[in-house]
Amino acid sequence: RMLKELLSTVLAKYKRYIWLVVAFQAVQSIAGLYLPTVNADIIDNGVIKNDVPYIWQMGGIMLAVTLVQITFSVGAVYYGSKVAMGFGRDVRRSLFHQVNDFSSREVAQFGAPSLITRITNDVQQVQMLVLMTCTLLLAAPFTTIGGVFPAMHQDLGLSRILVVAMPVLAVTLAVIIMSMVPTFRLMQERIDRINVILREQLTGIRVLRAFVREPEETERFRQANQAVTETALRGGRLQSLMFPTATLFINISSVAVVWFGSDRIAEGVMQPGAMIAFLTYLTQILMSVMMATWMAALLPRASVSAERIQEVLHTPSSVVISASAITELSRTAELNFNDVGFHYPGAEEPVLKDINFTVRAGQTMAVIGSTGSGKTTLVNLVTRLFDATAGSVVLDGVDVRDLAPEALWSRVGIVPQKPYLFSGTIASNLQYGKDDATEEEMWEALRVAQAEDFVRAMPGGLNAVIAQGGTNVSGGQRQRLAIARALIRHPEIYLFDDSFSALDLTTDAQLRAALKPLAQNAVVLVVAQRVSTIRDADQILVLEDGECVGLGTHDELIATCPTYQEIVDSQAAVNGDES
């Protein structure tokens, strides 16, 4: 059902090309059926007619028919390829846009490796089915139906062999195909698994080397790879039965035609040319049945892939865009959390409970707490990577769920907890924050982010090459470039999710001092681990197990919040030991 639904898009969009493929396949198949009749005309009582002009005439007809077959076969393959490639392009595009619309919840639900496999390997499997259908399968009905009647016309008695051979061959191959379905479903799951392991090993290569875990990870990959190999071999063995089985039926049927046909020739009720023509028709018919069933061998894996593709396409994002979304905000920047709570699906306890605070333009709100207290989740609620499951997050008097995504994101500059740089140059990464940023704006953002000095020292300056993920720069440099990318757009709300942790204390202080004049009319929300980073904030929110246990200035919390006092004392003790 899923495959049928997916392929219906092909019929709707590429109807014109498909009709051309059908027409070309019909012409080339029917032209091929004309050749046995020509062969039969040349043979008279078992010998080729000794008539040179007649032979030249029939030979010319055969060449003309063959030329027609080649021409229309090439046309069928050409337009069939356009249909298949266009289909693959459209499905990949739909999947890409669907995944981009997913919230973090859906991405975590499927997993990044599985989504990669679905967009690449699964689409390829269905695309191959479409291509083979257009180039091979569509010719089979014309050859089968068109061949049965001429074969019956040659000799009705021998046609009983067709009545037996065709259904037996089809049923036998169908049984083999049905056995392949669970194997190919398991195959795609194990490809997902090998992608998970490979992605983990590439991402965590430093950890593997630091803890000397290469042998264990090599064995882990070997087991996953062996599982894929065993499943592929199992499916290959089943698939390898198809051609020998089909060939066996064709040969048995051919022997039966010669066996019974020779008796009919001896009785004088059939000519040798007619028997040869019938044998050729039989071979073409059974070959077309074989090709159709071989095509069906692609069906199990394509069906599994179609299910996986449709599962992604039919999964709605938990972050729903309002039908009457607001596209413009007129008020000065202000951020409110009103009794906000968040609960992950399947979790026993909420991550955030009853969070209330207000941050106005020109103010800085800091969030601090132990690991797992919900700090990053709180930041993600502002940008709608998740939607609050209780209460509301309000920006400029409007619930963020009622805002158009572009209206929200254009007002927010975020530096995530794990800063990510894209492959390209420093300039291209900064232009993610502002497409039309000038060199002066880039250098100004780098100056505020305390990144100007090391960028000028790099070969090429703004055109210095950045590897995927920013792996060719240090953690502190990567973090400062990510900060500059957020600063360059001059948003109304700055979100810093533990963005100063890789900076030394001096650089941290210099960056915060340079940021103050830039953000004097903006809301600043800072998540931090170090008290020194946030002690000058207008408000500090202290989280513990997802609950607000303190809200106030540094001095107020020192006097009233035991949790904050513990954090300050522990960091003071560590700094004292280090000194």
SSE blueprint and pairings:
Layout (H helix, E strand, L loop, with lengths): L1 H12 L1 H28 E2 L2 E2 L3 H50 L2 H7 L1 H26 L1 H16 L4 H45 L1 H6 L3 H27 L1 H25 L5 H42 L20 E9 L9 E9 L3 E6 L5 H8 L7 E6 L2 E2 L5 H5 L2 E4 L8 E2 H5 L8 H10 L3 H6 L7 E2 L8 H13 L5 E5 L7 H14 L4 E5 L3 H4 L4 E6 L2 E6 L1 H7 L1 H17 L1
Parallel strand pairs: 5-12, 5-13, 8-11, 11-12
Antiparallel strand pairs: 1-2, 3-4, 3-6, 6-7, 9-10, 13-14
Helix pairs in contact: 2-3, 2-6, 2-11, 3-5, 5-7, 5-11, 6-11, 7-9, 7-10, 7-11, 10-11, 15-17, 20-21
Describe the structure.
The structure is a single chain. The chain has about 575 residues and is of the alpha/beta class. About 65% of the residues lie in helices and about 10% in strands. The chain is built from 21 helices and 14 strands. The strands form 4 sheets. A 6-stranded mixed β-sheet has the order 8-11-12-5-13-14, with helices on both faces. A hairpin with a 2-residue loop joins strand 6 (about 390-395) and strand 7 (about 400). Helix 7 (about 160-205) packs antiparallel against helix 10 (about 240-265). The radius of gyration is 35 Å and the shape is elongated. The two termini are about 70 Å apart. The model has no long low-confidence stretch (mean pLDDT about 85).
